[in-house]
Design a protein that fits this description.
Blueprint lengths: L10 E6 L4 E8 L3 E2 L3 E7 L2 E2 L30 E2 L4 E5 L13 E8 L2 E9 L2
């Protein structure tokens, strides 16, 4: 369920696996400057203990590096429509993502929410 801010027309879709893999697709609208992007993830309303610091190539609370423009080793400075990112919440992060959990990802740029995606892990 997307919630976009009035300051951006970027639109996203999200899928979450029972293994904690999150895939976000930028489906339309403005590109997002990766170095200005923040991401907050919560599970059933509780924020993860370890949040991703965008961009990153490996960090506490996540299994391996993310894919797409949020990977610190990517040469992309923007996340554009048609591009996807994925990251996997580690089982050591708290709370752990399991099937049936409600996962919410909030994307902000310079403190302004540009999108909030929510779905059930399956």
């Amino acid at each position: 369920m997307p919630i976009a801010s009035s300051g951006s027309d970027a639109a996203f879709e999200m899928e979450v696996g029972a293994d904690g893999e999150i895939e976000l697709d930028h489906v339309a609208g403005d590109p997002v400057a990766v170095d200005e992007l923040s991401m907050t993830i919560s599970v059933d309303g509780e924020a993860l203990e370890h949040q991703p610091e965008i961009p990153f190539s490996g960090t506490t609370g996540f299994d391996g590096p993310p894919s797409g423009p949020i990977n610190a080793r990517s040469s992309a400075s923007e996340w554009s429509a048609g591009e996807s990112v994925s990251l996997e919440v580690a089982g050591t992060n708290d709370p752990e993502v399991t099937a049936g959990d409600r996962v919410t990802v909030t994307l902000t740029v310079d403190g302004e929410t540009i999108a909030r995606e929510e779905t059930t892990a399956s």
